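RECORD TYPE: inverse folding
INPUT: structure tokens
STRUCTURE:
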């Protein structure tokens, strides 16, 4: 590649960063620029863009990136972040389950953060899932905090009022609305299959059944909590259940999980950062993206 082409590429990337810094809104960028910005963000953090570690959220009229489960898991591995749960308790006054997590970097630096989930009215499996969600939230929040990244975590998105979720096609840069509200608990599931007129249950083809079993096995192997699993499904197919998905869609989801598994198991390509300073390592990132949950 000639010197002229290298200089032009560098100039293009700088122009993309300048647009984001000035506007702070990915929605105002050209599709090609959004792709470049997404890839540049992945490159700067050392995460694999093929696993789609980031999604998009519109908050206060601006569209920004936020890390999903794949993103925070990769950041934890890249940074060699050691996490311990140091406190778990139910607050009777607030009806919330509170979890405190402590993170530690190889250089000895530590940080703490909390995950709080309301669960006063819950029982049984619902209560158990709420407690697991609080643990997950605490671990992800402290991961982002100790890595010096002022992003909102995926587990917090559902609690942000009037936020809108989006997906981005990494080939075209096109933004696709996932839902008009982060509260999609009452959103009808258009992917549900219709039962036959005789009232009998539809028969599931053996190929689909095998693929579902394969996905569930990967879920167990990757230790993906059911709530996170549903969030992954919703992000990809706008549904929280595998019922009604085609064989091709299930195979695509299997590929996503397998790619995540490879990334988590692989060793970091470069030596892990020992102490990220957001003002020195990635000033453009912090000015643009964080903290948006405030």
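DESIGNED SEQUENCE:
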């Amino acid at each position: 590649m000639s010197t002229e082409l290298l200089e032009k590429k560098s100039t293009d990337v700088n122009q993309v960063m300048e647009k984001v810094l000035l506007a702070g809104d990915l929605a105002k960028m050209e599709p090609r620029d959004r792709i470049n910005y997404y890839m540049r963000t992945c490159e700067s953090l050392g995460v694999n863009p093929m696993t789609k570690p980031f999604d998009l959220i519109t908050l206060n009229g601006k569209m920004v990136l936020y890390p999903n489960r794949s993103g925070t898991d990769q950041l934890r591995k890249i940074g060699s972040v050691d996490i311990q749960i140091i406190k778990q308790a139910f607050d009777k006054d607030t009806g919330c389950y509170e979890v405190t997590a402590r993170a530690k970097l190889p250089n000895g630096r530590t940080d703490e953060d909390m995950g709080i989930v309301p669960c006063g009215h819950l029982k049984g499996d619902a209560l158990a899932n709420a407690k697991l969600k609080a643990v997950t939230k605490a671990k992800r929040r402290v991961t982002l905090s100790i890595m010096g990244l002022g992003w909102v975590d995926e587990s917090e998105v559902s609690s942000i009022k009037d936020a809108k979720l989006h997906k981005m096609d990494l080939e075209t840069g096109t933004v696709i609305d996932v839902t008009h509200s982060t509260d999609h608990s009452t959103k009808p599931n258009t992917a549900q299959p219709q039962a036959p007129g005789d009232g009998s249950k539809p028969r599931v083809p053996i190929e689909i059944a095998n693929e579902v079993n394969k996905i569930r096995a990967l879920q167990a192997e990757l230790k993906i909590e059911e709530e996170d699993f549903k969030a992954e499904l919703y992000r990809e197919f706008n549904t929280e259940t595998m019922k009604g998905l085609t064989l091709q869609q299930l195979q695509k989801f299997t590929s996503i999980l397998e790619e995540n598994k490879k990334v988590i198991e692989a060793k970091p390509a470069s030596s892990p950062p020992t102490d990220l300073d957001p003002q020195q390592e990635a000033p453009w990132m912090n000015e643009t993206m964080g903290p948006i949950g405030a």
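NOTES: Residues 188-194+201-265 form one domain.
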